Amino acid sequence: MITHKNSEKNASSQNHGRGIYSSIYKRRLAFFFAVVLLMGALFSCTEEPIVASDLNFVSPDGYSIYSVVYSESTATEEIVTAAKELRDTLEIILGCEVALTDDHVSLGTDYAYEILVGDVQRTVIPTVLENLEEDEYTVRVTGHKIILLGEDNRATIEAIDYFMQDVLSCSGVETAKENRYLSISQSYRYNAFHTPPRTHVLKTDTAIPVSPYLPVELLLVDVPGNTADALTLATLQGLAAAMSGEQILLNTETAQRDAALLTAALPDGYDATLYETDAYGQVWTLESLLTYFAPRLQGYILCDDDLGSESASVAISMANQLCAVVLTEENQQLAKTAGLSCVFDATSADMTWFYDSPYFTQINRTVAIEQSAALAPRLIDYAVMTGALFASYNGDDGYLHAQMFRYLDDGAVVLGENDVLGKYRTVTTLSAINATYIPARQACNLSTLSGFARDGITLEDEFTESSSTQNAANETGKHTVCLVMTDGESMEWMLDEFSTSSSWYGSAKRGSFAMNWGIPATLGELANPILTSLAATRTAADGFVIQLSGLGYTFPSLWRTDALTLMAQKLGETMQDMGVSYLQVADDGAMNSEVLLPLASLDAVKGMIYTDYNYADMNGSIVWVGDTPVVTASYRLWAGLHEGSIEYVAESVNSAATDPSGENAYSIIMVHAWSGLDGSGRLVSGGNTMDAVAALVAAFDESVEVVGVEEFFSRIRSNLSPDASVQGDGK
Q: Is pLDDT larger for residue 276 or for residue 555?
């Protein structure tokens, strides 16, 4: 069950909410030392620093003895940023200027007093680096050099952090306090191992990556009013979903509905609590959420303030690997107040740099996000949770669009939408590289909702028994009609008004005639609460069809056969889990039975519906691919088209064949989800779709029988056989 609570999370034990910013650094410092002690025990990495003769940082006449040195040739922006932060911190502590130079600037000899940050060109470094193991870092004094060095860049950052905490007794400029007597032992040495932050382990038994944690504590927060806040919150939401069952739910128009749906989706024995306020009775804000989650984060990534920039794409794509929220300069102080420091400055990074960086080698290759700048706050949470690429191609070259995603594995899924190329060209270019596409640009809360991809209620065919709209065998002299709602491939529609609007599944007319609803194959994994709701409120007249063509919208004829076969296997498992046995395939051209074979051969598929992308081949033919009937649509209810009007479709069906032994006695009518009746009863774009369907059904005469998809294919199997129907490629 879902419990709503205000101000009931214990402030002292949970450490969140307002009024605790002044103490967060003490907590983080304590937490840091606890981790250091634990790591020391685990790895036997060092002894306690031995106090011998000390090296002072300030000369008797008040000048800094030490300078900070980084490598001009090897230091990443992340290392340079950390070196600058170290220099700034030292200036506050020492009360004097501290030089910051690259390693091409010589201060005389190797006896110079220097703090060496990373792999700098000094004779002492190669020997130290050679003896470091994988992920190991060291903080040590050698001669007059203080060495902060890791086996890789992330380990070097860990070395800098440790030096800050243990020697400088602070976490950066925000917590630095003056200490002109600062010194360090000449025998100081500390070694430890950096563990690359991994926020989650992807599940391997789902068609698309999902949160590995069931959301049991949901922190409800209003959607921020500005882009900068929305960016930071979205990345935080994704990280939260990747780390634990304590997750963030954006308070969109559908959030409360989503929360209510979670009740049915929870496994037996689980309860979920929706927290609308923090421990101090204040509504959750970005500020309080950052403070609350800060101890679990590595820091923040700074990016350009234009969400359409490559800088923002790079930062979002790196957030999972660095376990860091993404923010612009506008929110930098907010993050610092929460105790976070910059782990990477991506303000000048572009995608060319990213593709050549080690971070790209760790990117998720089963899913990617393509999103425009105008909608960029949406889908960021899912990209961050999965560690996926977040980018957008703004050109008009289909080949270059495909190139951007060629790194993906066969069968990968791309969520979002490309407004420049449009749906047809997006599907075409992705199909050509054996990838599939899910329209989801408006989707919210995917990272949180995906955690409910668990065993539960399915859309099993439990309502296919005899009823007023579904009979065991059609009467002589009846033309059999199956109505199928289009656009079920759109995940954003599923998450928006599909299940509640009177125009679709929320219609009062639902149940009064057989209606079959298109839904995406990944609905049960990306938004199981929606699937559960559909199943729980299903009537005997409701059927379901997977759209379009596979795990997402794709053209099977453009796939390699081996890649299509692998994708089909995953689709079959997903359909069985959902309890759906019928698949609509859309392709770019006439039906080809050889292309359809990997899909038709699935045990989960009892029947298939075929439509050309442009509905150009609507001949109602029935082709058997193996022992699976594949039926081409005959009509479409579609505003703006003469052949899509209620009158035209009704007259055509009323005069159609009725002999059940012939394929002409069966018709599939595709119902355009975005066409319907207006207030005056006209079929228009944007009208009430179910009202239009009801009007069409009322216009059928007694020679027509409307049935569900299960009954429709059952009649074909009973009355037709492969020998009696059209064979071959259907052309």
A: 555
